[in-house]
UniProtKB/TrEMBL annotation:
This is Uncharacterized protein. It comes from Pseudomyxococcus hansupus. It comes from the Bacteria. The lineage of its organism: Bacteria, Pseudomonadati, Myxococcota, Myxococcia, Myxococcales.
Length: 137
């Protein structure tokens, strides 16, 4: 996640941080789903979110569903969180998710997930709206 974020400007607002994280999870979820399926990803995501929220309580507003993590409910909470702390917590969430999936798959999926995430650096990918996740659901 940190390699993916490297070289990007600091998000201008909490909503920009949430949008960026939603994009990352959208790419990762799509790749992970094709290998592990929705039930496994939901179970892993719920567990990661539960543990991450112990360190970053504001993340308890994130919702996990069959299509991935939804960050829309975090919008009103995020404006009250220090921007640096918000960014760090979102990076931590993604890194923990990747770590657990790596351990679960014996690191077999880690490379493919990393490639999916880095593929989202494409400027054309940033302008896509049709396949983008909706944070508000």
């Amino acid at each position: 996640m940190r390699a993916w974020r490297e070289g990007w400007p600091v998000p201008a607002s909490p909503q920009a941080s949430l949008d960026l994280t939603a994009r990352a999870f959208h790419a990762l979820w799509g790749r992970g789903h094709s290998t592990l399926g929705g039930v496994t990803l939901v179970a892993v995501s719920e567990r990661v979110l539960q543990e991450t929220a112990k360190v970053h309580p504001h993340l308890s507003a994130v919702v996990v569903g069959p299509e991935g993590m939804r960050f829309g409910a975090l919008d009103p909470v995020a404006v009250g969180v220090d921007p640096g702390r918000l960014e760090e917590s979102l990076v931590f969430l993604v890194e923990q998710w990747l770590c657990i999936l790596g351990a679960l798959t014996g690191e077999v999926l880690s490379s493919a997930l990393g490639e999916s995430l880095l593929g989202e650096r494409d400027p054309a990918a940033a302008s896509r709206t049709e396949a983008e996740p909706e944070r508000s659901r």
